[in-house]
Amino acid sequence: MAGHSQFKNIMHKKGAADARRSKVFSKLAREITVAAKLGAPDPGMNPRLRLAIQNARAENMPKDNIERAIKKALGGDAESYEEVRYEGYGPGGAAVVVEALTDNRNRTASAVRSCFSKYGGALGETGSVSFMFDRVGQIVYPPEAGSADAMLEAAINAGADDVQSDENGHVITCGFTDLGDVAKNLEEALGEAETVKAVWQAQTTTELDEDKAATMMKLVSALDDDDDVQSVYSNFEVSDEVLEKLTAA
């Protein structure tokens, strides 16, 4: 497992997820509001909203928070957010893609550029690193959803392209344009997934030593901590030995 997935696992083991819950809820609410504003407020008729609500539920976001985010879009008083993508290089030349929802491009660009500079990276132009990634759909199920063989069979029947299973769960990958249909088929067969979203999947990885990996984790954490940033992806990879050291640190 590489890059941001490794980072997420480390942060989860450190118990950081609970401390960041309020910020996570805020970002989920923003996505729900944007989805409801751009399409119908009914998740049954708005695939993006349906996925946003599903991901919010996976994080145990209260129902009241979800409904409030939808009502904010309907009330017409919601901020006007736009989707922006930033690309650049982190320590050791690892590629980084940052997705944001912002109501102020200048503020967000300045904050993202500052994070890259602080941790030895460099912000590039749009398209400077995204060609190293594929835009795909990713559906995640917990370990108890089934065995690796059972998940593989369900994924094939649902029209997915790949499944990666380990002790942390099952990560199912499909074509970006097929995400809605594959997620629906899997839900009928396996129940609701933990998360369903479009991601940037690295075509190749860049291995980092312990020092550079530690700095990269700080960069990703700083970007994640920004209120405007929704997702961060990187192609960095570390060895099991380095990962163990970083987890224990």
List key phrases describing it.
about 250 residues; alpha+beta; Arc Repressor Mutant, subunit A; 4-stranded antiparallel sheet
Describe it for me?
A hairpin with a 5-residue loop joins strand 1 (82-89) and strand 2. Helix 3 (21-38) packs antiparallel against helix 4. The strands form three sheets. A four-stranded antiparallel beta sheet has the order 3-1-2-9. The chain has helices at 3-13, 16-19, 21-38, 47-58, 63-74, 105-118, 148-158, 179-190, 210-225, 240-248; strands spanning 82-89, 95-102, 122-124, 133-141, 162-166, 169-175, 195-202, 206-207, 229-234, 236-237. The protein is built from ten helices and ten strands. It is 48% helix and 23% strand. It is of the alpha+beta class and 249 residues long.
Radius of gyration over C-alpha positions, nearest whole angstrom: 18 Å
How many helix segments? 10
Low-confidence stretches: 10-16
Which architecture of the domain at 3-74 does the CATH hierarchy give at level 2? Orthogonal Bundle
The run of helices and strands is: HHHHHEEHEEHEEHEEHEEH
The strand count comes to 10
CATH class of the domain at 3-74: Mainly Alpha
CATH topology of the domain at 3-74: Arc Repressor Mutant, subunit A
Residues in helix, %: 40-55%
Mean pLDDT: 88
- Overall geometric form: globular
Largest sheet: 4 strands, antiparallel
Q: List the strand order in the largest sheet.
A: 3-1-2-9
Fourth-tier CATH superfamily name of the domain at 3-74 = Integrase, N-terminal zinc-binding domain
Derived structural class: alpha+beta
Strand-residue proportion: 15-25%
How far apart are the first and last residues' alpha carbons, in Å?
Answer: 19 Å
